[in-house]
Structures are given as C-alpha cells and as structure tokens.
Amino acid sequence: MKKAARNILLYSLFINLIACTSNGKKDTKMKEKNISDILGNPDYLAISYGGYRTDSRRVQPAMEQLKEDMKILAAMGIKIIRTYNVHMPHAVNVIKAIDELKKEDKNFEMYVMLGAWIDCKNAWTGFEPIHEEESERNAIEIEQAVQLANEHPDIVKVISVGNEAMVKWATAYFVSPIVILKWVNYLQDLKQENKLPKDTWITSSDNFASWGGGEDSYKGEELTALMKSVDYISIHTYPMHDTHYNPIFWGVSTEEEHLSNKSKIDSSMQRAAEYAQSQYYSVKDYMLSLGIDKPIHIGETGWASYCNGMYGNEGSMACDEYKEGLFYKLLRAWTKKEGIACFYFEAFDEVWKDSDNPNGSENHFGLITIDGKVKFALWDLVDQGAFDGLRRGVNPITKTFEGNQDSLLNQVKLPPLKEVLIPEYQTQ
C-alpha cells in the first residue's frame, strides 16, 4: 500500500509538473492586442515607414533589409507602423518580414496600419483628372488590403482608405469624400458579414482641413457621414510647411530679441508644436459640434532636417536637425500625455520622393538617414545603447555629426524676424 501510495504521489507530481510547464509556455506566449489597446498607448509608439533605400521605388527593399528596419524600429519603442499602398510589393513584404520575426522571436511585436491608395479617374495618366469620378484601380487596391488583413489579422490592425485623397491641393488625384465614404462603408459591411476581422479599424488619413478643421468648403453632409462611418479620424498636420504658406506662428518677435539664439529657436519650435495642436483640436471641435464623439489620432506629422528650397536657409529657415529634433520631442511628449497615437513621418529618409532634387525637403523627413545615422531627435537612444548590435546595411547605428552638438548647432539658422517674414500677415 505504501509503495502504491508513493507511486500515486509520484504520478501526481509528474502530472502537475507537466501542467506547470505547459502553463508556463502558455503564459509566455504573447497575448494578441486589440487595436483599441494600441492606438494612443504611450508604450506603443507609432511611425510612418517606407523602406526604400534608392532614388527609385522600382528597387524594392530585400526581405533582410525590411527585417533589419523592423528591429531598429522596435529598438525605438515603435510597435505600429504605417504603410501607404498595396499596389507595390513593399507593404506585402513588410507584413511578411514582421511575420517571420514573430516566428523567430515570440516576444517580437509589431502591427501595421495598412494604406489602400485611392485616387480619381485619370490620375497620373497625363490626361485631365476627373475628380468627381474614381480610378478603376481603387477597387483592386481595397480588395488587396482586405486579403492582407484576413491573412494576417495578428499584424494588420488598421486599413486606411486613401492618403491625403480628399485635400484639394492634391490636384493630381484628389476625390470627393463620397468616394472615401463608399469604401469605408464597404469595409465596415465586410466586418459585419464576418468577411473582415471585426477588430480591424477603418479610417481615412488626410489633411486636418479635409476633416473640417479648416475652411468651410470641406464641410458638408458627405464629410459628416464619413466621420460617422470611420472607427477613428486620422489627421495630418505639418507646421513646417506653414512656415512658408501661413507663417503666423513662425519667426522671432521684437519681444524675443533679448533672448539667446537658442532660446529664440526653442520658442519658435514651441509655437510650431502649439500650431499642430491647434489644428488637431480644430478637427475635434468640429466633430463634437456635429454630435460625433470618436477617437482622433495623428496619421502624419513631421519636420525635415534639410531643405534647399522655401523651407531652408534661403526661405523660412525652418529645416535643420536641431529644429526637427525639437519638434519630434514636443509632439511625442504632447501625444503621449493626451493618449493620441502619432504616426510620425517618418522613420528613415527616402530619396525617391524627390529624386530630381537630392537636397529637397521631401528626402529628409526621416529620423534616421539611409546609411543608418541617427539624427539629433534620437541621439539619446544611441546613448542608452538601444541600437547596440543593430545595423542598417553594413553600417552600425551611429549619430550624425559624430554626436557633437556644437557642430550641429553651428549650422542652425535663426528664424527670420516676424516683421521681415510676414509683413502681409497680422503677427500674433
């Protein structure tokens, strides 16, 4: 009896050991996050991502290059990235890269806001764009996005219908809100029919004015219906561009002339951040005035580190690494505090954006250069060892200017005096 009892006891302990081991494995398996737990979570930073490393999108990043980038972004605390279209292999390959990394490391975590490109009839054809009609290819783009979301529900958490597709200065391709509404409703219907994961949030990412935060010409029944249909509103705000187009917040005032040069710059950048905030809240105020209450997140904002044109040293003197770094830190601090997701534009420089002008601002919005040099905005992460052991291509992750802040500041220009910059504007 004693032997039998002992055997029973040993068997029981064995079973418990197996159970504990099994539970241990289960406990270490990453719990899948809902998008409501991701957007606006300060531990889940967002960023816009393009992995192109040459002056042409015909040269697609290799899988190892994409995985390399995902590891760098993860080291930055990024947990959700934004892509822009599915008609090129890039977005598909990004998702594949994330999927492979998740299989290699059960603790790797990265999600995707998947962009579906939307444009009007005759866009990019050489013929006159017909803004009241849509491109026949829009349907294909949407279906490809649906397919990817269904194949990878653990990765694709948001589908954005269009990118700046409603703002009227996008003269080559913009459409009316009714086109965006059509596809948003289509995707929402698919969720109801269990043909798309119910946790997939649907939005459209567009300029703040397109969402009713600016001139009245954008406001109307179609926009109201769209606001009601999306799961959240995704807005773009770019104070950097308005240092030229509407510089009411930019420049050094006479009251600031006694300040140090650094303080003058810091003060200008603080106003730039407040300007971005005001555009965000203008959309929120308009939304609430319609009796609608849903999340608003930032689909894009950013600041170029160099420009040889209207935002550079021959123009509004806005673009350099120091100002870019200040804007990044100010926007991250504000959005974290307020629980706003900010898909900061962008992770890496992409020189295809203005291939005819290598020094154009569009090529210099990245926080990291193509060859793996971290700009001023992220120098502190290098100091903390966040990128130790990581490379971009053959290059280890290092600081620009060799980390010398004096060298950095030597090339920073003061914003112009307000009365010189904007004599036609009423200064504030």
According to DSSP, the number of beta strands is 13
Distance between the termini: 93 Å
Given this structure, which CATH class is correct? Alpha Beta
Low-confidence stretches: 1-5, 7-27
Q: Could you give the order of strands across the largest sheet?
A: 1-2-3-6-7-8-9
Quaternary organisation: single chain
Roughly what is the average pLDDT, rounded to an integer?
93
Summarize the structure.
By secondary structure, the chain is an alpha/beta fold.
What labels describe this entry?
39% helix; 13% strand; two-stranded antiparallel sheet; TIM Barrel; alpha/beta; 13 strands; 428 residues
Descriptive report:
By secondary structure, the protein is of the alpha/beta class. It has a single domain, classed as TIM Barrel. A seven-stranded parallel sheet has the order 1-2-3-6-7-8-9. Strands 4-5 form a two-stranded antiparallel sheet. The longest helix has 29 residues. It is globular, with a radius of gyration of 24 Å. 43% of the residues are buried.
Topology:
Elements (H helix, E strand, L loop, with lengths): L1 H27 L6 H4 L6 E4 L14 H13 L2 E5 L6 H16 L6 E6 L3 E2 L8 E5 L2 H15 L4 E8 L13 H16 L8 E7 L13 H9 L3 E4 L2 H7 L15 H29 L6 E5 L20 H18 L34 E2 L4 H5 L7 E2 L2 E2 L1 E2 L5 H6 L7 H4 L7
Parallel strand pairs: 1-2, 2-3, 3-6, 6-7, 7-8, 8-9, 10-13
Antiparallel strand pairs: 4-5, 11-12
Helix pairs in contact: 3-4, 6-7, 9-10
